[in-house]
Design a protein that fits this description.
single chain, mainly alpha, 2 domains
């Protein structure tokens, strides 16, 4: 590990420790016990486990995705156990996490192996996450809450993500026409 990576890792780790300490101190000072601080503490630990490989390894994204796969379900399970409602892990947490993991791996593979312009890969990624994954997760949220998302909310979300994807494609096409030698592959 390079000197810069060690420094970044140490700073990131210390920032996590300080954030956890601040949460505990404030929570105990206000409530005389640990109550709400369990949520950010658990989340900070989870974030540290996922982000650390990105800092430690030069190509740590695949390791971070593996860490996400390994830790997301225990994280969500323990989070469910400390929340007042103990019935969301299986019907909402698990399918949403699976969709997120699949989307993360597809984007990783898209950027790692697809040899097209960075603009086009970015357009595909925005469409994949902003439209497809979002609609699937929205379905699980609606089913869990026994509600229906408003048509306007879905339309705005889908339209904006499609618009961003289209803009990225247009910018990629324009970049290719202006500078054919630099295809951003």
């Amino acid at each position: 590990m390079s000197k810069n990576r060690k420094l970044i890792f140490m700073l990131f780790t210390w920032a996590c420790f300080i954030a956890i300490g601040v949460c505990i101190i404030v929570n105990v000072a206000i409530d005389k016990q640990i109550t709400w601080s369990a949520y950010p503490i658990l989340s900070i630990i989870f974030g540290w486990l996922i982000v650390s490989p990105l800092v430690i390894k030069k190509y740590g994204l695949a390791i971070s995705l593996c860490a996400l796969m390994l830790f997301v379900f225990p994280f969500l399970y323990f989070l469910e156990k400390i929340t007042p409602n103990h019935s969301w892990f299986a019907p909402l947490g698990v399918p949403s996490a699976i969709v997120g993991i699949i989307a993360g791996w597809l984007i990783y593979l898209l950027f790692r192996f697809l040899k097209i312009s960075l603009w086009y890969r970015s357009a595909i990624a925005v469409f994949l996450v902003g439209v497809i994954a979002n609609m699937i997760i929205g379905h699980y949220v609606d089913a869990f809450l026994s509600t229906e998302s408003s048509f306007l909310n879905r339309f705005i979300n889908i339209f904006s993500c499609v618009a961003v994807s289209a803009l990225l494609v247009i910018l990629g096409y324009r970049n290719k026409k202006v500078n054919p030698a630099n295809d951003d592959v």
